[in-house]
Amino acid sequence: MAAEGKTIDALSQFELTHIVAGFTNSNLYMLIGGIAVSALMVLGMQRRERVPGRLQSLAEVSYQFVHNMVDEQVGHEGRKFFPFVFTLFMFVLFGNMLGMLPYAFTFTSHIAVTFTLALVVFILVTAVALALHGMKFFGYFFPEGAPLWLAPIIIPIEIISYLSRVVSLSVRLFANMVAGHVMLKVFATFVVLLGSLGVVGVIGAAAPLAINVLLVGFEFLVAFLQAYVFAILTCIYLHDAVHLH
Amino acid sequence: MDDPGKAGDQASFEARLAAARARQGLDTPPAGTDRQAASPWGLGMRAGLELASALAVGVGLGLALDWWVGTRPLFLVAGLFLGGAAGVMNVYRLMLGRR
What's the pTM? Predict the structure, then answer.
């Protein structure tokens, strides 16, 4: 992997390879993620024990976690969005977590994927707001009581601010995943390069190895946190759409 | 099964369970639910991202409008300033906290 040539090749891990024409490794891991989420929920809840086992606990905890989040952030009317937020959260979470396995591909490290997810959220939120409030939705772009001559400035600013949600939502997830995996690869390459320098190098390689151990733990935190942030921002946007402030 | 004595038992059991969990520190609120509890580093990254993404959208919209109407620098300049303003607005809203 890293040892060929004496260079640090941090970005090759994000390259798409075609397994079958038109079906890439990214698609493969999306499929694995989808199957894993379904398997967790279906197999986990199959036995329906009063005292849950490990798998059932995991399924129940993740359900409860997202359910509470939707309930708290969107409010009582937001319950009908729970399936959507839960699917989104689990898909992103499993994408991030699968990426932590050695040799696995992290599909959330591609802006095309995260941007599409963010776009789905954005279109849903806009559609919900339009369906619930009709033309009043456009009042969102011009606060009541503002002087009318400021409209040519306020309205474009509000529209840009509204559109920038897609960008910030997608870039946050994408950038966090890329940054983490690049750091892991860079420090892993340090270990290999230093280790090839003989005895002194092997002793020196202990430092980047220790850092990498820490980074792996940190990356698990980031993998969970970014899925959480993605889901909670979706909830906050849904709240805005349902209540219009 | 559903006699009132059982229901009272259930309630006191829940209360005792909650007390025991609190003693053991098992019921700590999940981190990150509170905006104020976010780390300064995370908050800084978020503010920077909000600023930059609004600017990017403003410039992008400006360029697209210019390409469409054929007035190269006009909407680009307008989009640059409006995008910057929208970014400041985003950060202002972030800092205000919501609700």
Answer: 0.83
List the structure tokens of A228. Answer: 């959480």
Tokens of A113: 């994927």
Q: Which residues of B touch A160 (CB under 8 A)?
A: 54, 57-58, 61, 79, 82-83, 86
Of B33, B50, B58, which is closest to A168 when you measure between CB atoms?
B50
- CB interface of B with A, residues 54-83, below 8 Å: 54, 56-58, 61, 78-79, 82-83
The residue ranking higher by pLDDT, A81 or B35, is A81
CB-based contact B48:B58 (threshold 8 Å): no
Mean of pLDDT values over A80-91: 95
DSSP β-bridge partners for residue A20: A23
Cα gap A95→A117, rounded to integer Å: 12
User: Which class for A193: exposed (0-12), middle (13-18), buried (19 or more C-beta within 10 A)?
Assistant: middle
Chains A–B, number of C-beta pairs less than 8 Å apart:
54
Name A236's Cβ contacts closer than 8 Å, sequence gap at least 6: A73, B98
Q: How confident is the model at residue A13 (pLDDT cuts 50, 70, 90)?
A: confident
Give the SS3 label for residue B1: coil
Record: contact A158-B86, CB cut-off 8 A: yes
CB A160 within 8 A of CB B54: yes
Residue B1 has what pLDDT? 44
A203 touches chain B (CB under 8 A): no
Dihedral class, residue B28 (left if φ above 0, else alpha if ψ from -120 to 50, else beta) = beta
Give mean pLDDT, residues A69-92.
Answer: 92
Task: Please list every residue in chain B whose beta carbon sits closer than 8 Å to the beta carbon of residue A167.
Answer: 53-54, 56-57
B82: Cβ–Cβ under 8 A, 6 or more apart, which residues?
A153, A156, A157, A160, B58, B62
Minimal Cα–Cα distance from B78 to chain A, Å? Answer: 10
- Give A228's contacts in chain B (Cβ within 8 Å): 32
